[in-house]
Structure formats: C-alpha cells, structure tokens
Request: fold
Amino acid sequence: MPDWVERFEEAKALWIHDGNPKRPHALLTSGNHSDSYFNGNNIIENPNLLRAAATDLIKMWRSGWGSGPRIERVIGSAFGAITLAYELGKQLQAKTGFTEPIKENGEKRMELRRFTIRPGEVILVAEDVFTTGETTKLTIAELEANGSQQVPPDVAKIAEDNKRLQTELDEHRQRVARADYSQSEEYEKNFSRPYKDTFASGRIT
Reply:
C-alpha cells in the first residue's frame, strides 16, 4: 500500500508546523488548534488520486471488518465527503448519498434530505476529514433515525493506524525542523493562499 503521507506532500495537501513559535499554526473549523493540517480537497479533486485513496480505504476496511454484510449504500456528509462517498460506492457497487447540515433551535444536525433509505439498509459512513467527529456522529444519528444499519468501525484498528500515522508525522516534523526556514516559509505561503483563514498566529494552545 502506498505511503499516503508522501502522496499528500506531493499534492501539497499536508502542512506540518516546523516548531518555530513565531510562525502561524492551523486553526480548525472545530475551533481547535493544530500543528498540522491535511487538505483532503487536493486529493479529492484529482480523479486518479481519489480512486487510489478509495481503493486503499476499502482494503483497510475489509482487513478489519472481514466478511461482514454487503454494503448497500455509502453516505458522506456535505460537502467535503460527497465525492469520496461516490467513489467508494462505485468501487463497492453500492448506492450513495449524503447528509446536509441544518440548524434547528440553534443546534446543528445533519439531515438526509434528498435520499430515501429502507429500514435495515447496510450503510458505510464516509468522511474526508475527521477531527472531533461531530459531523460523523450527527450523520450516524440521522441514519439511525431513518432505520439504517451502520457498519461498525474497527476501533482497535483505527487506533493502531492513528498511532502509526502520528509516528510518521512526528518523524516528518523533525525533518521539517531541520530544513531551511526560507524553503518552509515559501511552502507554507503557497499552501495557505487558498486557506488564509485556516492559519492563526502564535503558539499552539
């Protein structure tokens, strides 16, 4: 399986803070601060990379889930995960769909507005970016309210994969810290231009 950290780097879809407290860090939409940032859009916009990513995700999922029930539909959340859900559904030969965010009495929820699912339909929920997991949980709650059956995640494997990825990112951060700052600043400038509101000044808190 290819090294997706390297692929994200090649697509200029991965930014990692170099440890200099005077340089900006990532401010996530959740309000959390981060010393790294994955921009899934740079992968999703490339059909070949998206197809490869979906293929590897399915391999990882099958290695943990095994011979479970056949996936009948893949649901993503609007808007980032719509294209990913479609590609996963195509490869799994399953229907697709997406939930949309709405506000009710000041509370956010994800609503399945354009698709009808049948009771007991086996659904795989897809996300392009996972931070706090709030949107995914709201999507799952909406699907459960409509009577679907979600494929349970392999929590142990997710934890193992996250630990391995964190090790790779730590090693990458050390390489960045040793690099020439001028090169890092130029990369950050190019990366952050479409996402100028993503970056916050000062030390990570």
